[in-house]
């Protein structure tokens, strides 16, 4: 007796109904069919007992060679389905067979194409399109200084739908700078320029010019990139899975063939992650064959690359300028990253020229320093050994742990403990720890917040909070607003003849009640 669970399992595996399974079981029992006798059954036996009448339709209609027709369609972009149907109708049919009408012919041809590997070849011309998108899943990168997850890297995915040639890279975030930089890297990887880039309607690429209206417009910076390469930007239709099926398949491939291979591997920087991704991408493109037996790289080189345009001599580059002041540690700060300059510029204001890959620092028209731009974790230091001053230079005194602790002692023991904790948490990244601790003392301990820094640090200790700028600043704001710490109840002021006014906004589980006087509605005069 087959149980319900077994019936469901058989039904799911074979795609048939429970009624068909029960009928088969009864037939086996009635005819005493065994494994040996089953192998000897004639095909007419199944037509007699399990006929779905499709055989009659096959006999009545002349069946085209859809595989041959699909190949003809793939090899000639000017060939139409109507021409294929006309050729099919013109060919003689077998005795008693009829020809499919045009709509039936197209539907069966479409079904054949969907169930084979021909879809990408038919729907996409070689060298014409590049599909791009962000992958949904992110990759954790560990901060060596703390041993905790320091950032979640986003994955940019690009694919040529004709050959399935793939490109993947990781970025610190999904902002416009990285969006454009990833496009430039993808084109550089291909070595050629497609005619069209199809992108999803991500906020990075588009914006809504009129609030609450469905229409979206391409971001100007993204349009500038496209103009530079003479590429047409085409957004994918929302809610149309087949419109962006190529990149969705690529994302699934990234999950299974790249992220799946990283199981048990820990990454400590974006560069380390991207190096591992590049190895997996090359393996996928050069060693993993498509269903037709050809690798992605072979098909791209043979069919797509000759149809694409050459890249410009220089890649697209966005440039921005910043006025920066040289700190006492002879470094300037750009986007929370620090770059060294010669020591004689301490205290001066210089100009920094920023691209995605370089930081050039100028004093007027004179170039005083050049560094590779850093991405990823904040408060990284890029120091040229030639800029490191001699210890004997007067007026140059690097920031030290002892100096910070001495300054913290002017606030109180809680501040000393918090500053020490910050330095210990960043023991493997000493410059970052010194920078964070100094910001706590200088920015949060200035004359306006001096009286609240010590009690705020005490709250960080009492509640085992993370000692950083954001947490301490929020506690300071609460103390300044309410006049009490998290463990104190606000004072109650009573004025005779009036209702008591109690600030209960900081009391946990507080309930707001209106006083009785609120309901004393003055009577209208007659």
Automatic annotation (TrEMBL):
One of its GO terms (biological process) is DNA integration. Gene3D superfamilies: Ribonuclease H-like superfamily/Ribonuclease H (3.30.420.10). SUPFAM superfamilies: Ribonuclease H-like. One of its GO terms (molecular function) is nucleic acid binding. Residues 122-304 form the Integrase catalytic domain. PROSITE patterns: INTEGRASE. It comes from the Bacteria. NCBIfam families: transpos_IS21. This is IS21 family transposase. The lineage of its organism: Bacteria, Bacillati, Actinomycetota, Actinomycetes, Mycobacteriales.
